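HUMAN: Ready with one sample?

ASSISTANT:
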Amino acid sequence: MEHYNYKGKEIVGIDHGFGNIKSRHVVFRTGVRAYDAEPSMAADALYYDGKFYVVGEDHKGFVSDKSQDDDYYILTIAALAKELEFRHITESEVVLAVGLPIQWIGAQKEAFRAYLMRHELIEFRYHDQDYLVHIADVQVFPQGFAGVVQRLGDFKGLNVLADIGNGTMNTMYIKDGKPMASRCYTDKLGVEQCIIRMSNELLAVSGYDMPYDVYEDFLRRGKADLPEKYTAVMQKAAEEYSATILSKLREYEFNPEIMRLTVMGGGACILRNFWTGDNDRVRYIEDICATAKGYELLALSNMKRNAGA
């Protein structure tokens, strides 16, 4: 089982998406519900600070500041619970490696770090197991770049990276393996926008809407076990969304004839399944945990550099 521990500190990468929380080994939705008593139907409840929390049943709405309420803090504890359970660790010093959208990191980095470091010691119970975590540090990195940090040798020439999450698309130019700080962009063009488009168009045509899960599964697989009158509308909306993504990239001077495009995040499957353009110079990174893994590697590199290694 691959993960990083440096000088007794467990490095845990958490990708705080708007739709899903991802760690190295775990993915779950961002919904959070609090209960005073243990829910009878929830086998996956987290107990922390006198309350029970059920996470992962739905999505949290888009917010431009993840530290504006307690939800992402609870989601962080839930991610620690699930990831440490996977690693068979119940007590540890932990370095959290996290990230923010590229254009937000300058303004929000310190506030997000303080938000996640509000308590040095965290005690919680998950699956009848008690955990004690000492938060030794929180390191904050730019989204997108972290997801390809282990692959930078593949980025020869001029490349465009599009990291399409549930809430935002982060775009970055990479030249010969080096990110170009002056050419980084964040847009509210995540997967949620595609699902809203599909829902609106289906309602307009048929007067009927689908459960969120049906839309997600359709985008992921490129097909659904539904009548053609529904899938045709959904396909058209997904193709229009894909065209919108490419139009936005062209606004940032992306030229598919001379540049390579790398697409990652939850939106990678949408472009792979529904973009009608030429895909010869496009590659897809479909490991949804790639960014969390990249955060861990960047944190490890920082720790070694600061120790003089």
